[in-house]
Amino acid sequence: MRVLVVEDEQLLADAVATGLRREAMAVDVVYDGAAALERIAVNDYDVVVLDRDLPLVHGDDVCRKLVELGMPTRVLMLTASGDVSDRVEGLEIGADDYLPKPFAFSELIARVRALGRRTTVALPPVLERAGIKLDPNRREVFRNGKEIQLAPKEFAVLEVLMRSEGAVVSAEQLLEKAWDENTDPFTNVVRVTVMTLRRKLGEPAVIVTVPGSGYRI
């Protein structure tokens, strides 16, 4: 899952991004509304965690732009105000969910994951395919009943492949969904991660390389 965090309190923004990355999400961070509009113009995000009171361009206007573009991106709006009228107004302009500050990080994670599931065709909370069982919420992976320990990026790649339900996923798509924008697009990090993931999942291999196209399970 790829997430954009838009928050002008830099310490909070960086802390949220760090926590989401630990949950195997690819996260970009910006600190004002103008930068947010630049990012959403060039990158596809599953979820935008959007502070409402932003400098340069207000969070409401960022949200309206996402709605105007007709993007499947889901918006979790943050605000220091807990007034019902503010929450209603935020939802009416296009936000999908609303979370007042201060918030419990576990709740933020749960809301981001729930919104991320709504950007694609609905799938069961626990994904199962080819003897693999992946639970995004618990960050657990089992193969034929045996737990497999994966690093965050390995988990993210496996989740993208599992969610594709047998369709081929290109290296570019994996790079977009599992890594942030600071990753060199010409790096071999996808190939190396897939190789490590294959080794950890064991035999027989379940990740198939489709020459010239990508990977599938």
UniProtKB/TrEMBL annotation:
<dbReference type="InterPro" id="IPR036388">
    <property type="entry name" value="WH-like_DNA-bd_sf"/>
</dbReference>
<dbReference type="InterPro" id="IPR001867">
    <property type="entry name" value="OmpR/PhoB-type_DNA-bd"/>
</dbReference>
<keyword id="KW-0597">Phosphoprotein</keyword>
<dbReference type="InterPro" id="IPR001789">
    <property type="entry name" value="Sig_transdc_resp-reg_receiver"/>
</dbReference>
<feature type="modified residue" description="4-aspartylphosphate">
    <location>
        <position position="51"/>
    </location>
</feature>
<dbReference type="InterPro" id="IPR011006">
    <property type="entry name" value="CheY-like_superfamily"/>
</dbReference>
<feature type="DNA-binding region" description="OmpR/PhoB-type">
    <location>
        <begin position="124"/>
        <end position="217"/>
    </location>
</feature>
<protein>
    <submittedName>
        <fullName>Response regulator transcription factor</fullName>
    </submittedName>
</protein>
<dbReference type="InterPro" id="IPR039420">
    <property type="entry name" value="WalR-like"/>
</dbReference>
<feature type="domain" description="OmpR/PhoB-type">
    <location>
        <begin position="124"/>
        <end position="217"/>
    </location>
</feature>
<dbReference type="Pfam" id="PF00486">
    <property type="entry name" value="Trans_reg_C"/>
</dbReference>
<keyword id="KW-0238">DNA-binding</keyword>
<dbReference type="Pfam" id="PF00072">
    <property type="entry name" value="Response_reg"/>
</dbReference>
<feature type="domain" description="Response regulatory">
    <location>
        <begin position="2"/>
        <end position="116"/>
    </location>
</feature>
